[in-house]
Amino acid sequence: MTYTINGTEFHSTPAPGQCLRTFLRDLGHMGVKKGCDAGDCGACTVWIDGHPVHSCITSAEQMRGRSVTTIEGLADGDALHPMQEQFLKAPGFQCGFCTAGMIMTCASLNDEQRADLPAALRGSLCRCTGFRAIHDAIDGVAHVESDVSPGKEIGASVGALEGPGVVTGTVRYTMDEVPAGVAHLKVVRSPHAHARVIGIDTSKAKAVPGVLGVFTWEDSPTKRFSTALHENHLVDASDTLVLDRVARFKGQRMVAVVAETVAAAEEGCRQVAIDWEVLPAVTDVEEALLPGAPHVHDRGEDAWIVNPEKNIVAALEFGRGDLDEGLAAADVIHRATYRTPRQVHAQLETHGSIAWVDESGLVQVRTSTQAPFITMEKLAHIFDMRQSQFHVFTGRVGGGFGSKQEMLTEDLPVLATLRLGVPVQWEWTREEEFIGGTTRHPMIIEVTLGATNDGRLTAMALDVTSNTGAYGNHGGETLGASSAPLAGYRCRNKRFTGRAVYTNVVPAGAIRGYGAAQPTFAMESAIDELALKLGMSPLEFRRLNGLKPGDTIGVGGAPNDDVMSSYGLDQCFDMVASAIESGPSLPAPEGPEWSTGVGFGMSMYDTSPPTEHRSDASVEVLPDGTYLLRVGTCEFGNGTTTSHVQFAAAALRTTMDRVAIRHGDTAESGWDTGAFAQTGLNVAGRAVTLAAEGLRLRILEYAGRFAEEGARIELLPDSVVVGDQQISLAELWRRADADGVTLGQARRAYGTPISVGFNVTGVRAAVNSVTGEIRLLQVAHAVDAGVVINPQQLRGQVEGGVTMGIGFAMTEWHQMTDDGTILNPGIRMYRIPNYADVPPIQVFFSEDADGVGPFGAKGCAESPIDPVAPAIANAVADATGVRIRELPLVPPLIFERLYDEYLQRTPAV
Amino acid sequence: MDQGTVREFIRPSVEDPTSEWQPGDAWLAGGTFLFSTPLPDMRRLIDLTTLGWPSLEVSDRGLRIAATCRVVELYDFDPPAEWTAGPFLREAVDSFLAGFKIWNTATVGGNICTSLPASPMTTMGAALDATLEIWGPEGARRTMSVPDFILSNHVNALKPGELLRAIDIPLESLMRRYSYQRFTLTKHGRSSEFLVGTSDPRKRDLMLTITAATSRPFVLRFAVMPSAAELHDAITSAVSDPDYFDDPNGSPAHRKHMTYYLAEVIRTDLAGEAS
């Protein structure tokens, strides 16, 4: 019996317990992706005899004799399948990791299924787009502008450069290119929240056939570091070891087993015996602050830890004016405490890294990261080597959302390959993303607001207690970012106090809305509560008190590098208010138990992070007269590479197809701090623009050699006009080369000064006060992102961010027991928004041009999430009169209060 | 996912696969559960799908569903028009968290044997008073009702070496009127509560099946349609607080609240009372 795959017969034999997904990949069909490996996400969808299945939960052996179609076999030769064409032209993807499976699914839908996409696409997940883009692709709606003439690139919805590779499944993500003879790494994770290793017996593990090496804390480098990836490594506590003797959370990696196969590595892990001394643990953040609480970290690990005895890794206190004076001047004061939960990134591509030492002795690291350069720097630090001994690079990255601004999977493969001399790969399972990855910092936020009767804010204070978990990665920076909501309002007296606290649970880290989504929920809920106490419309209160041109940006009184070089908040308020006034997108459900309400939220964001951030870019003329752009930042669906080529083409007065780009690779470009916090567009994009503008001037300067005095010199898309002669760029390159002249320029940009942008969300929700169900009838979102470089790309980013906000507010219910056990460590039980969970999202852009960003753009990758949750909570309060100060708004957590209020409202029930 | 501990894949050569069974074996039907979670104690897979059991057999006794009947076959099944409860077969399939791609391989028996409180095939079998046919080693045969079969979350009455052969739905059940209520925390999510009422129009009785809300199915039978208060009291005496299931798809308190609420909605509907 054989397998027919895309029309070709294969005679291979799968392992008896092998699933079809890995069998197809073993045979070279790398378009078959792993998102969850449990049948929940659909990234691995293939057809069996024409019917779609999830290949990760399909027995390979059972499919003998059957005909399999993967994404690679969908096109008819060079002619794309119509669904591939539609996904390309909509576009129906961002990072593209779900796309192959999504196309295989959508191409199989019958009319009945197309008529009910929310039902048909359950179990087909996309974390990037928010699904509207996928709906458009299915319907054949094309937004991509394919014919963009020179000079029209900025503001055109050009398609993603790697689009054709995405829709054909041929673009290569991290684990799609693997060196021959690669060994597999798996880890033993701690079953205890806090425990010290007394002894480890690895003898049985080493005896497992195929096991090549077992590594414990005794094999670990002794340099402490933080997994957080920042330019300045001093902003995070160095509290982490590659392998530690102390487990500080349930799920911490303790022992690494490397074997010839995944199965042997897993068996090796099961054979490791660890003798533990279980230590007292603290998993509750408020208990961790009490005297006598167990210490998660010891003094002496790193002086950066502010107060290990109190489990405080970082503490901040700053402000301006006089809070007491402001409160004394207030007619109305609102003070309340709000709580926000964990949220996971759930990017479809799990973490994974492959390391090997090449023939020249260079350590090669192919990895899924948002910051290859900082990873290189950190590896050099840990292993006591030079940065030049590492080459860190990415394939296409299948989503990040901050999860990959973290060095989680690179160090162990490097350790193993240095010791064993064979290539080693470590690919995380979906469960490892939950138990060994990072989450949003849960926060307890006390808001104090004072205002006069005429609605002017006189005092604002935030007190934030942030749970950083077992390690301090991003603990300090997210804490600083959590002061952001204070900055968005005009008020003389502001005060921020906060602390990031260690507990014995899975570490928190970087995630979209970095430290700001949590206090924005608190502040924007509190603003509503205060306005209602004043008898004012919450929206009018925001219009009155929101920051305006000329106001100081920032919370403290010290000079800073924030500038308001554009302003669109007023337009955002107008657009969202007008959309909400015009009525709901979906009809309100009927019945006395249902009530509807409207809520708003706003937030301000910085266009660069406050820590040091730098990006190099270079552009050169190639011998064939085209251009090569090199930039260090990564592409993971954010669309920056496409925007970078738009910038370069615009600056060089050429067409985009004449600009090639290399990125995300430490060997291909100058330094780049990484892709996070709008920097891909704003900082790297500025470097690209400056380099391209520099090259244009350089070309004109050199071409001047061939001009007579006073002759016209002009750069055209593929040539230079010098007087009455036209010299092709290829010819110009030949002349320059002969003259010993390089036609190339490099520039560096920094994340300073920082400009600001705004987001405003309006929500109309219906609430069932008996069941606790919330239905979003309308979501309108406006963003002030300056000049919009690529409208469809930005629209997708905004919809994706809003959708993640909907998840944060009302579908994603991360559950953990008191001993730090995560109860839903998988996509099936941790519900990221499905198609059915997302209503139509109305997206609006303000019209303004920024003075700092490239071509007037500000970037807006992560910020749209911020005001979504409070807008929903405010709508629920408006509908029911019940103010809920804790997320998520899931029926089991909210129904009792809603039902009590309903019974009081309607005594007849 | 790959199950690296599996050493052998067996296609049974005889009609009764139970003769092949040994410890460490798992009966493979669609595989959608067996390949979805680590099962390191599994050593061999015995494929039941090659035995050729007819998926759906209609007779004057009712409907016999093979354990290996794929969910999509039940969804596509066109029941006889006189089966008042016939449409519920399709509606039960539509109550899966899993989408249509999973239905292409998952089986009715597999879903019952996975024995989740929210398994929709369990709900269907319990609400339609099905009898489960169970095969054991050396020709042992026994039958069971669904509520007796499901013991708690992921736990059922199958003994080592036993397999589920078929689900027999009696004609009498298929001729009853029915009304169901299902609540999920998110649209098309996994059932938090899935309650079904059936009634014989001539007898005006009520059979109420409570699933998903509780860790095992509860069936309440009333010879005549109860009043709201009678129904409420019957639920209270049948289902105690620890019976309400606690998992990430709901809380015991919410499930209890919803059980009473949804049961009353069903009662009102079947009693023909205006709500």
Which properties best describe this structure?
heterodimer; A: 909 residues; alpha+beta; Aldehyde Oxidoreductase, domain 3; Aldehyde Oxidoreductase, domain 4; seven-stranded mixed sheet; five-stranded mixed sheet; 27% helix; B: 275 residues; Uridine Diphospho-n-acetylenolpyruvylglucosamine Reductase, domain 3; Enolase-like, domain 1; 3 domains; five-stranded antiparallel sheet; four-stranded antiparallel sheet; 9 helices; globular
Describe this structure as you would to a colleague:
The complex is a heterodimer of chains A (909) and B (275). Chain A is α+β, with helices and mostly antiparallel strands and 909 residues long. Chain A folds into 5 domains: 3-168, Beta-grasp domain (Ubiquitin-like (UB roll), Roll); 183-279 and 351-427, Alpha-Beta Complex (Aldehyde Oxidoreductase, domain 3), CATH 3.90.1170.50; 298-342 and 442-551, Aldehyde Oxidoreductase, domain 4; 565-606 and 752-909, Aldehyde Oxidoreductase, domain 4 (2-Layer Sandwich); 614-750, Aldehyde oxidase/xanthine dehydrogenase, molybdopterin binding domain (Aldehyde Oxidoreductase, domain 4). Chain A has 25 helices and 31 strands. A 7-stranded mixed β-sheet of chain A has the order 8-10-6-17-14-15-16, with helices on both faces. In chain A, strands 2-1-5-3-4 form a 5-stranded mixed β-sheet. In chain A, a hairpin with a 2-residue loop joins strand 3 and strand 4 (51-54). In chain A, helix 23 (791-811) crosses helix 24. The longest helix of chain A has 25 residues, at 679-703. The model of chain A has no long low-confidence stretch (mean pLDDT 96). The longest helix of chain B has 20 residues, at 252-271. In chain B, the strands form 4 sheets. In chain B, strands 4-5-10-6-7 form a 5-stranded antiparallel β-sheet. In chain B, strands 11-12-13-14 form a 4-stranded antiparallel β-sheet, with helices on both faces. A 3-stranded parallel β-sheet of chain B has the order 1-3-2, with no helix packed on it. In chain B, helix 8 (228-238) packs antiparallel against helix 9 (252-271). Chain B has helices spanning 71-76, 86-93, 100-103, 108-114, 120-127, 146-149, 171-174, 228-238, 252-271; strands spanning 8-10, 25-28, 44-47, 56-59, 62-66, 131-135, 141-145, 150-152, 155-156, 163-170, 177-184, 191-199, 206-211, 218-222. The radius of gyration of chain B is 19 Å and the shape is globular. Chain B folds into 3 domains: 8-47; 56-171, Uridine Diphospho-n-acetylenolpyruvylglucosamine Reductase, domain 3 (2-Layer Sandwich), CATH 3.30.465.10; 178-271, Enolase-like, domain 1, CATH 3.30.390.50. The mean pLDDT of chain B is 97. Chain B is built from 9 helices and 14 strands. Chain B is 26% helix and 26% strand. By secondary structure, chain B is of the alpha+beta class.
